Amino acid sequence: MHGRKRIEVTTAAIVTISVIIAVFGMVFLGTTKAARAGETGADSTPALDGSTTGPSAPTVQPATGTVGDIKNVVVILADDLDWPAFNQVPRLAALKQQGTTLSNFVVTDSLCCPSRTSFMRSQFVHNHRVVSNVKKTGGGWEKFQSLGLENDCLPTWLQKSGVSTSLVGKYLNGFPNATPTDTYIPPGYDYFVTSTSKNQAYQGINYTLNENGTLKSYGSAPKDFMNTVLLKSATSHISTAKTPFFMEFASYNPHTPAPFDSKYAGTHATDTVPRTPSFNTPGINEMGWLASHPVLGPNRVENMDRLWRKRLRSTESIADTYEALQARLRATGHANDTLVIVTSDNGYHAGVHRLATGKQTAFTEDAVVPAIFIGPGMAKGAVISKTTSMVDLGPTIAKIYGAKTPSFVDGRDLMPLLRGQEDTPWRTATLTESLSRTLPGDPDYSPLEAPEFHALRSENWLYIEYLNKDVELYNLKTDPYEMNNVQASTNPVIVSQLHAQLAAMRHCEGPSCRIADAMPNGNWISPMPQVTVSPTESATPAVTATPSAAATTPAMPSPSSSVQ
């Protein structure tokens, strides 16, 4: 699309969504407050403490801290780390008392490379267009580079502002695009250490690292375990890094095959996959792709538990990483001026909904990941339940350093929430997409993965539209384990609002995303205009308004007004 036409379409999207918000905004704010005032009983969101006896709410403490004097930021980015595994590693679970937890932190795609690109570009997948892990299916490092995205992303924004930048660990799937002898360092990094061994890197042994332009190979001795080697590099760099500095420590753990440090060989001997209500159990009103899955037999479950124990041992390295980096920050006098963020590129499912092991669904286990902020001004033990997204990390980190972000950024600055400003205008939902299929040979390949989809997630709802036209809707307040698809029985007005917001979100770009993500989506308790549209229709929904609203109620945004 030519630049002028692209600007016109984006502007039209902003205007359309703005009108909707203007018309419905007063009602939305009023009814939301009324709904909050009328809530009774305990919240039924899944426990953050790893409870397997049933849903229970975490004790939500307000984030009353101030930002404080943050000079440096360290992001510890795990690979395929879900909340259940996080909570079964006591040292990680304890981190929730050391900082502020975002309990509804949602990835843009529960697949490695698209999610990591969203972190680097602060864009949803439909905007950055790296939709998979490999070039053949429209993703991977080669797609990222061919689009020129490496020249305009978080590390380049920070470096231009005088920040010392580093990456230690996994960069993007498929890097480097040539041979293992490639010593290429992408733009934006003052210090860069990553594996050139591609899939072999997931084994944790017998790999080669590009250590800031110098290749070095490692074997299979305990001292060569990759996370150990990467940690040594990271801690050494912190000792000499100029301030302010930014570091991304991107572990390959606990990604399958879940290698672990030999010192953890005897740990987690009796742990199993949490037996939540959704474990190996059919749901209600399942769609075809999910209904086709049989109940897992005893041997499959036993093998799943065996892999799960390996994953927990592998996850211990994430705890090692946090402890080692914090120790070095203390030793260098930076413990009190450095924000440490612990999170993951995506989650992981094992046995829920009768799914074996994997990811690439919109379910909580895959799409909602740990996110703990520890450091100056971060209230200890605080839990923020508002819907946040991977695309928010870039604007937040850039704001800390005073770096400029481009207009294409889709995310929001998290600092007002982290400061405890609870009245900050915020989104009502965010977007998760899956726009590709994995192929045999990809470490994330699964022959039973879900169809491609677009999904809207809020504190109350999970609404999914699949490419095959199936639709799922889960009420997260009454059904936190996403077992009952209520799309057919929910008030059509609510379903239409969710459909309209998803249509706007999946076509938003930059500023229009911060309008679309604030649209009404089912938090109403007052009568609303009747929307005569099927949730699966792609045409512009027609609104049959009451006489008093007929003159001012616009049509909902059309999926056909896509920004290509």
UniProtKB/TrEMBL annotation:
For this protein, the record's Pfam families field holds:
Sulfatase (PF00884)
Q: Residue ranges under compositional bias (Low complexity)?
A: 534-564
Start and end residues of each stretch annotated as Disordered: 39-63, 532-564
Keyword Iron-sulfur belongs to the record: no
**For this UniProt entry, which segments traverse the membrane?**
12-30
InterPro entries in the cross-refs: Alkaline_phosphatase_core_sf, Sulfatase_N
* UniProt KW keywords: Membrane, Transmembrane, Transmembrane helix
Is Repeat given among the entry's keywords?
A: no
Q: What PANTHER family does this protein's entry cite?
A: N-ACETYLGLUCOSAMINE-6-SULFATASE FAMILY MEMBER, SD21168P
Protein name, as recorded = Unannotated protein
